[in-house]
Amino acid sequence: METNVQQVQDFYQVLKERRSVRHYDSTFKISEQELTDILTEATLAPSGANLQPWKFIVFNDQAVKEKLLPIANNQIQVVESSAVIAVLGDLEGYKQAEKIYASAVEAGYMSNEIKENLVNNITGFLSKMAPDRLKNSVLIDCGLVSMQIMLVAKARGYDTVPMAGFDAGKFIEAFNISDRYVPVMLIAIGKAAQAGHPTVRLPIEDVTFWNGIA
Questions:
Q1: How many C-beta atoms lie closer than 10 Å to residue 208's C-beta?
Q2: Could you tell me which residue ranges the Nitroreductase domain spans (predicted)?
Q3: 13 assigned to some structural domain
Q4: Model pLDDT for residues 161-171, shown as the tens digit of each residue
């Protein structure tokens, strides 16, 4: 019981201490292995039908981050942080259904018959979905994994800041991103050189309604 209580306390500490940090120790590096571990843990996030329609580009080479800097409106955290993670939405993520559900069969989570039905139903439905509706679904899933990246990073002692302020068109052109992917956000990660400033939240009564909206 004590272990469970401690885990809960640690979780709330992560929630309360996470800040959007914009100034980083530029000499501090996070290894590629640990960045991989952070992303691996973050991808435990939920997604529609477990299709995991996200891809990541990790920018940890200083010269490449310099290339990214003007695309991201010259936000200094791009070049000062240890890395910048670009979260991309995969508009053809449903094509991964066979691989994902085959792995679930191998793990003993479902029968092959159930897998076949799911794959056929999901791919058939999503392949015919209106583009805007499909994109919205992918953006929701990418928002979930992005928040998870930031929480996992904080739990490991690192700081982050999400950035929507970048030129998606120039990003696509500069890094040769195909039409299959939609840039969702950039996330800088590293060790803070300056703490993120405290912020306030609206009273929960201002944003919560019961059984309908006023």
A1: 9
A2: 15-191
A3: no
A4: 999 999 999 99
